[in-house]
Specification:
By secondary structure, the chain is α+β, with helices and mostly antiparallel strands. The strands form three sheets. It has a five-stranded antiparallel beta sheet. Strands 8-10-9 form a three-stranded antiparallel beta sheet, covered by helices on one side. The radius of gyration is 36 Å and the shape is elongated. The N and C termini lie far apart (about 115 Å).
Length: about 375
């Protein structure tokens, strides 16, 4: 049987033609590229990279780049197999780089990102761990050094792959204009991140309140800071918020925090019993500091109550202030009930200057209804 028709041209692309066998080869190789790209982003590959203690974000970047590179590799191989020559070492039109150099550039950039990540991990977990420096300062130093390694590594890779930085002058000017307009916020957040790492107004583990968000600082990144609230919700806050907005840091310098619990009692209550009950409620809480100990203030004589304020100190409950206040309020209510002290509620006196106001009790009204409805 004559199989030469399989090699006959089906159609021409420029001076080259594609046969039936070439078309089949293209489909098979392109399909293999799609499958390979898909497998490179699977959980098996992610778990393989995780064995090397690589950051999860870096793993996601690497697998994405590898899948794209595999797709490009198989696509170019499929085009060559179809009968359209596309040389790996020939510079691409409009570029001074060949396909081989582009793949090499991608591999080197991945290596630079990996070295930067490992540098940060090594400095923070090993080299600076026993230096005696504050843990947050160790993190700041590790982050800054990792950023320097990343920037220097990118410049070295570009120079060694044939991309001369002098040729990027015009591009850098265009980028500068872009930063002035569209990328202004990103540049501002990046600079704010460096300021935060240098001045350390907040550190990892601090409980902060900024822009209506309250929680514990988990990460301080180049563009944003990760805060986890007490509801276990992760909030991503731009770094500029910590520079141009008021920030409440509950644990800055000294972890001890003073809590004020207001409460009002009815007029006629025994003032000394109120004071003893409030002190007992504060002292019996296990999270209350003994030094300085709880104290009670008679704040003012209100319209319907005598207003007191229980003041306690705690170094642990700054991370859960709402829970701490709730526990103290429960304890105060119990102590008041045991001592027979009534919590005040608003009362108003009505004075009638003129005329007559008919007042009828509810009991008598119900009694009259029953008598009229009976046969």
């Amino acid at each position: 049987m004559n199989w030469k028709f399989l090699e006959q041209p089906l159609f021409y692309i420029g001076e080259n033609y594609v046969s039936f066998l070439g078309l089949v080869a293209f489909v098979v190789l392109f399909g293999a590229g799609l499958l390979t790209a898909r497998e490179l982003q699977s959980g098996v590959v992610r778990r393989f990279f995780a064995r090397f203690k690589i950051d999860s974000n870096f793993i996601a970047i690497v697998t994405t780049i590898l899948s794209l590179a595999a797709l490009v590799f198989f696509t170019i191989t499929a085009i060559n197999a179809a009968g359209i020559p596309l040389a790996w070492n020939t510079p691409l039109p409009g570029l001074s780089l060949s396909l081989t150099q582009i793949f090499l550039l991608i591999a080197l950039l991945i290596a630079v990102f990996w070295i930067s990540s490992r540098t940060k991990r090594f400095l923070f977990n090993r080299f600076l761990a026993n230096s005696g420096l504050d843990r947050s300062l160790q993190y700041a130093i590790s982050q800054i050094v990792a950023n320097v390694v990343l920037i220097v590594g990118i410049f070295v890779v570009l120079e060694n792959t044939g991309i001369h930085l002098a040729a990027l002058t015009v591009f850098a000017g265009a980028v500068g204009v872009g930063v002035g307009f569209g990328l202004q916020n990103i540049a501002s957040n990046f600079i704010s991140g460096l300021v935060i790492l240098a001045e350390r107004p907040i550190t990892i583990g601090d409980r902060v309140e900024v822009a209506g968000i309250a929680g514990q600082v988990q990460q301080i990144r180049a563009r944003s800071t990760v805060i986890r609230t007490n509801d276990n919700i992760t909030m991503i806050v731009p770094n500029t918020k910590f520079i141009d907005s008021p920030v409440t840091n509950w644990t800055y310098g000294d972890p001890r925090v003073r809590f004020r619990i207001p409460v009002g009692v009815a007029y006629g209550s025994d003032i000394e019993k109120v004071r003893e009950a409030l002190l007992a409620a504060g002292q019996e809480n296990p999270n209350t500091l003994k030094d300085p100990g709880p104290s009670v203030f008679l704040d003012k004589f209100g319209d319907s109550s005598i207003d007191f304020e229980l003041v306690v100190w705690s170094s642990e409950m700054s991370y859960r202030p709402r829970r701490f206040r709730s526990d103290l309020n429960f304890a105060i209510e119990q102590k008041f009930r045991e001592a027979g002290i009534k919590i005040a509620f608003p009362q108003r006196d009505i004075h009638i200057r003129d005329g007559v106001l008919k007042v009828e009790s509810l009991a008598s009204s119900e009694k009259s209804k029953v008598s009229t409805s009976s046969p």
